[in-house]
Write a structure and sequence with these properties.
The chain has about 250 residues and is mainly α. Helices cover about 80% and strands about 0% of the residues.
């Protein structure tokens, strides 16, 4: 909250010296400050304050891509699917190179089950070689390929993610699952070991650990994974599958 207060003071100073004004630089500075305030408020769950600041930015420039992107995220958080998509598209129509907006649009499409569209947007994001979250974009691409039944495309995307960030946890566990499905248990174990070094256990990782231990006939290790699964995630689907298995 202290940070938001400081930004609000800065905004008043900028607005005070810039509006009314014909200075494009000062207006852009005010827009950027409003947008940053809006995003910070949105991140802390204060949607009304987020809306107020993002709309203020749009009053200064109704086509400001950063503000449109912020509104898209706000609408998405409120379950306003059509408005979210409309604002994502408007932001990208104003700035086709706005990679962060395209990344969030891809995530939005994936969550809506529109995997073909999500794949296309993730693919465009991966083409930005300087994007900070490029490994995550390859993960999104890989997950989209999996949903569309393209296992080879998923493998290539996940491997690319891991070549950029060897500790990308989602890529590691998804690659482990792919290796398991292909009965390459040594590779699956390798990926799972790497995952366990960089991330907290999840229902999926613990259930995979159980199954890999079974294939290695290591009942003690399987029981250890199973105990963790049922105690930490007792209501998960993976815990249900473990209970139904009877711990063979």
């Amino acid at each position: 909250m202290k940070k938001l207060g400081m930004m609000a003071v800065a905004l008043m100073l900028v607005a005070g010296c810039a509006l009314p004004t014909s200075s494009v630089v000062d207006q852009q500075r005010a827009i950027e400050t409003y947008v940053q305030l809006g995003l910070n408020y949105l991140g802390s769950g204060q949607r009304d304050q987020a809306r107020f600041n993002l709309l203020k930015a749009l009053e200064l420039d109704r086509n400001a891509p950063e503000a449109l992107h912020g509104m898209a995220l706000l609408y998405q958080s409120e379950g306003e699917v059509a408005l979210a998509e409309q604002n994502f598209q408007r932001a990208l129509s104003q700035d086709r190179d706005f990679t962060q907006a395209r990344m969030n649009f891809a995530r939005f499409l994936f969550l809506e089950g529109r995997f073909d569209r999500a794949r296309a947007e993730y693919l465009r994001v991966t083409q930005d070689a300087n994007y900070r979250l490029r490994p995550d974009a390859f993960v999104g691409l890989g997950l989209s390929e999996l949903e569309l039944g393209n296992r080879e495309g998923a493998r290539l995307a996940l491997n690319r993610a891991l070549s950029l960030n060897p500790n990308q946890a989602t890529a590691l566990i998804e690659a482990a699952e792919l290796a398991w499905d292909e009965q390459d248990y040594a590779q699956a174990r390798n990926y799972l070991d790497r995952f366990e070094r960089v991330a907290r256990q999840t229902p999926a990782s613990l259930w995979l650990g159980v199954r890999l231990a079974w294939t290695a006939q290591d009942r003690d290790r399987a029981a250890s994974y199973g105990l963790a699964l049922t105690q930490i995630y007792p209501d998960s689907n993976e815990a249900l599958l473990y209970r139904q298995s009877g711990d063979p």
